[in-house]
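User: We ran a pulldown and think these components assemble together. Before we commit to crystallization trials, I'd like a predicted model of the whole complex to look at. Sequences follow.
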Amino acid sequence: MASTEIARQAGEGVRAVPLAGHVGFDSMPDQLVNKSVNRGFCFNILCVGETGLGKSTLMDTLFNTKFEGEPTQHNQPGVTLKSNTYELQESNVRLKLTVVNTVGFGDQINKEDSYKSIVEFIDTQFEAYLQEELKIKRTLHSYHDTRIHACLYFIAPTGHSLKSLDLVTMKKLDSKVNIIPIIAKSDAISKSELAKFKIKITSELVSNGVQIYQFPTDDESVAEINSTMNSHLPFAVVGSTEEVKIGNKMVKARQYPWGTVQVENENHCDFVKLREMLIRVNMEDLREQTHTRHYELYRRCKLEEMGFKDTDPDSKPFSLQETYEAKRNEFMGELQKKEEEMRQMFVQRVKEKEAELKEAEKELHEKFDRLKKLHQDEKKKLEEKKKSLDDEVNTFKQKKTAAELLQNQAQQAGGSTTLKRDKERKN
Amino acid sequence: MSASSDVLTGAAEANGGAMGLQKNLEGYVGFANLPNQVYRKSVKRGFEFTLMVVGESGLGKSTLINSLFLTDLYSPEYPGPSQRIKKTVQVEQSKVLIKEGGVHLLLTIVDTPGFGDAVDNSNCWQPVTDHIDSKFEDFLNAESRVNRRLMPDSRVHCCLYFIAPSGHGLKPLDIEFMKRLHEKVNIIPLIAKADTMTPEECQQFKKQIMKEIHEHKIKIYDFPETDDEEEMKMIRRIKDRLPLAVVGSNTIIEVNGKRVRGRQYPWGVAEVENGDHCDFTILRNMLIRTHMQDLKDVTNNVHYENYRSRKLAAVTYNGVDNNNSKNQLTKSPLAQMEEERREHVAKMKKMEQEMEQVFEMKVKEKLQKLKDSEVELQKRHEQMKKNLEAQYKELEEKRRQYEEEKSTWELQQRILEQQKLELSRTMEKGKKKKIF
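Assistant: Here's a predicted model for the assembly, 863 residues in total across the polymer chains.
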């Protein structure tokens, strides 16, 4: 019996004991399965491809139902992602299926940023899960997982090689999601061209280091079929929801004047292989890979970005408490520093302004001191003028009084002379 | 056949977009195979289960475990806990790997030798709670690492608590232990050595125990509800027989040609797997065959989450104001820090605004004062200038008057002079006449 992961993990020192009868724990897988079935499953597919490659039709064909949506025009200004969730049921299994479509992919003139909205979308789903996982009170067992489990990348059936947009986009996505490249509308390629096309695509992917999803070969019950299928990648598919009568059966097909392409005929296209691999055999593995590989990678990067480490500089492992406390102290310290900085800035400004105002005050006083001085000079001059006038007036007055005095004397003398004359006359 | 049409169920129309539209599928898609995929993967991974047994010595714990798992977990080479003399309560783990039907199970049995054996048994549950908490702590740390590997689940999934068959009721120690542990682990209380009681005594004893359990609000492991009617009937039957009264045995005895496990007495054989004799079969079926997974799930979703949220709340709100509403506990410590950061930014903004305001106001005040003093000085200057000008005018006036007076007087003087001159001339003439 092959050894299990648990047995391997337990390692040495665990003895295996024989059982003397039927204990009954072989029902554990059934118990587990029953619980999962009761809970329901969920699966999220992302379809990336240019407008008109038949993404919606393929989804309809894969899940045997008509999903919503109008065919999109080619005039989208950027790439947006539209997602729809459906509840499907098959026998007793309930599946919450989310189909996400890229709208407007490859339609712009400048496609440099086309991949960005896709990467952002995928990261957003990871982030939502991470946030839920980090909450204090969380409900992970009933969380609706929106992370993308599989990305079907639609390659245009040119027959030659991958477009550079394809290579760039797939390179950006291969570490974030399980990529399954498929050749769309493959009824446009002949069989011989198809073989060459597949080889070309595979070699281009390899030489550019793009990691596409490999069907797992470690579980012996499915190893064989998976490895066979791996060699048929990328699958060349045709989708159709229309039915045509072949023989006495109605089959899904596309009718051309020269013949009918039957979707479920393995000689015509790889649709059946895709359905087999994607849904019937490896759906659970796709989900597991998303959770244990892609999500963990995202989480690791995010936590490292935020400064979390597993060991301190002395290589001693941190406990959760220590990590959070350290983070918290750092955070508080940062906040305080910011506050201090702001205060300092204000103190500085106040000082500067005060100095400015003082300068202005000084200038003002200087100005008025100067004016005052001028004024005083004027006053002095005025005083001098006044003084000189006064002097003049005084001189004049003196002259006047002296003259008058003289006149009076003269008059008196004249008067007396006249008197004398008069006297003489009389005599 | 017409083209496929989608059939929307009534429920879907009520639910609309948020829930997802219900679709009925035509033709086989294949995801009904998902359960098989899950089955396959789980077998490949293997299973693990940790069972804790607690009870005083001599209650037949080791024998019961051996009976449950049909193996010699405790054998002469690996003696059971009761054969080891303990001074204080210990916690011991034994790990074994058992395989059946392609399924591997890593079984860990946790023993608590010494429990309840001392004279003073205060705090004898402490090592037990410490052990359970330390396993939670290990898991929490493993889960919180940046680099995570496949995490082994060594948390205690179930605790079998052995009650001595006194026939009266629960001992104070029993009640105390269960109260301390019912929120940390799934407790399944068992009546040990049930072959010492008659069915009626057993019935009485069970009723009494359940009454006391309810009185003390002890939460023992509860079976989950199912939609299956059959299953629910079975579960209700089990619930009626709680707590399960068990008998264990390592010896095989021949009864009526059958080889069974049992205990041989002079008056007969008490068969372990006979449903009329004891509830062992029910326990085995419930613990191993039907509810093992549920025990693990409840441990993970309820007990572990309780531990985790308490631990993280302590870390997050360490030193932070404690008027938390219930809503705050939905955040992670990081989200809490984010929130605090945003609050702080808002606070800083407000502080900045206030400081700006104060600053502006002070500046305005100062500028106003400066302006006022400028105006004042200007006024004074104007005043002085006016004063000066007035004085100038006055001076001008005075000068003018003086000039006028002067010129008038000078004119007078000139006239007088003229007169005088004329007079003297006439006098001269007269004088001349007289002389003649």
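Residues 1-21, 319-328 of chain B have pLDDT under 50 and may be disordered. That may be worth checking against your pulldown data before setting up trials.

User: Thanks, that helps.
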